[in-house]
Specification:
Layout (H helix, E strand, L loop, with lengths): L1 E2 L10 H7 L15 H21 L6 E4 L2 H16 L6 E4 L5 H14 L2 E4 L10 H7 L4 E7 L11 H10 L4 E4 L16 E5 L10 E5 L25 H39 L3 E3 L10 E6 L4 H10 L2 E2 L15 H5 L4 H4 L2 E5 L7 H19 L1
Parallel strand pairs: 1-11, 3-4, 3-5, 5-6, 6-7
Antiparallel strand pairs: 2-8, 7-8, 9-10, 10-12
Helix pairs in contact: 1-7, 2-7, 3-4, 7-11, 8-11
């Protein structure tokens, strides 16, 4: 069985599991408790915070541990916009291809807090131009929130250029880096806040972080005992924080070599699919894309039917975001890129592991894809 849905989730790395184990057993204290057991846990939590901050080029105090990318995105969008209301800023800029956790947070703010939301358009490849972002920002913009790399089509934004635009207008930039972490450098992007999810990196599901620069007012979304410096209440998951820090460090250490190897295998796969299936259209940007991401439309066939045929042949893939799995609606990402609804429903996404397939395996995989499409076409 070939698992090619790593944008949805990845297995826990053995090194991560080993690093977490002491904090699931011997060092089990509550890090907020003022006794020896609690202090040992607190030391591990703060060490993990410092390690995450180091990879991101931020300060340890900027890191808020969360239950995953969805919570991190909710805290970023709601927390930063609500924190700016007192200064008279009640405008939010998003793009139409964002993850549901961003779009639904924006809709909540519009519905309950009278926040104006502007969707900056993307080009047919899913890219945002600095000119388009400039046109979307207003004097009262509280936040610009954009995905660094799209979870469906793999398109990577020019975060540095977009960050420069936001900065020149005095608007903070939040980047959803759930997909890009471990694949792309996260230093020097000009972001004021950045979201991570551990289970994309080899840490367990239910682990994540929001990095947000301390100068920004952040209204908490979860209220209670005031943990995480008052920004996210709830007893900290020490083992999860250690797991996230370990996975992020490992991915960053391996990033350059992994991106090169996986990118080459993915390119071979894409070329062979397009050779064997002439109607296959690669979605997203062919150049500015994640190294391990390839998404196609196959006009005239059902994407869901192709997925079932691939699984029969031992290949696990997806039709897009796992958060939207089971929906009969075409992908909002593909629609925003100008793809017709009927064609959008033919999409199939392949996302590769950081452990790359040899080029010959990638070519054989393309043969399986061609066979599955042909079987569906009948």
């Amino acid at each position: 069985m070939l698992y090619l849905d790593h944008a949805a989730t990845s297995p826990v790395r053995p090194e991560v599991r080993a690093a977490m184990e002491p904090y699931l057993t011997a060092v089990f204290g509550n890090p907020a408790s003022h006794h020896t057991a609690g202090e040992a846990a607190a030391c591990a939590l703060e060490d993990a915070r410092a390690r995450v901050a180091r990879v991101l080029g931020m300060r340890p105090g900027d890191i808020v541990f969360t239950s995953g990318g969805t919570e991190a995105n909710n805290l970023a969008v709601k927390g930063l916009v609500l924190g700016a209301l007192a200064a008279g800023r009640r405008h939010l800029v998003v793009s139409p291809i964002e993850h549901e956790s961003i779009l639904e947070s924006a809709a909540y703010l519009a519905r309950f807090h009278d926040v104006a939301v502007t969707a900056v358009p993307v080009d047919p490849r899913g890219r945002i131009t600095p000119e388009a972002l400039t046109a979307a920002i207003r004097p009262d913009t509280a936040l610009v929130t954009l995905g660094h790399a799209n979870n469906e089509i793999g398109t990577v934004q020019d975060a540095a250029a977009l960050g420069a635009v936001a900065r020149s207008h005095g608007a903070p930039l939040h980047l959803d880096a759930v997909q890009s972490a471990g694949w792309l450098p996260l230093h020097g992007l000009g972001a004021d806040a950045l979201s991570l999810a551990g289970h994309k990196l080899g840490a367990p599901k239910g682990t994540g972080a929001l990095a947000v620069r301390g100068r920004l007012p952040l209204e908490p979304v979860l209220h209670g005992g005031g943990q995480e410096r008052g920004r996210r209440s709830g007893t900290a998951d020490v083992a999860g924080a250690v797991g996230l820090a370990t996975a992020l460090e490992l991915a960053e250490q391996e990033r350059a070599a992994t991106s090169t190897r996986v990118g080459a295998a993915t390119a071979a796969f894409v070329a062979e699919v397009q050779r064997l299936v002439p109607e296959a259209e690669l979605t997203g940007d062919p150049v500015h894309r994640l190294p391990g991401s390839a998404s196609f439309t196959f006009a005239g066939v059902s994407g869901e039917a192709v997925l079932l045929e691939l699984e029969r042949r031992g290949v696990i893939s997806s039709s897009g975001s796992a958060c939207a799995a089971g929906s009969d609606e075409p992908s909002h990402v593909l629609l925003a890129c100008g793809i017709a609804p009927a064609v959008a429903q033919t999409s199939v996404r392949f996302t590769f592991a950081r452990t790359p397939l040899p080029a010959d395996v990638a070519v054989r995989l393309a043969t399986l894809v061609a066979a599955a499409v042909e079987a569906v076409r009948g």
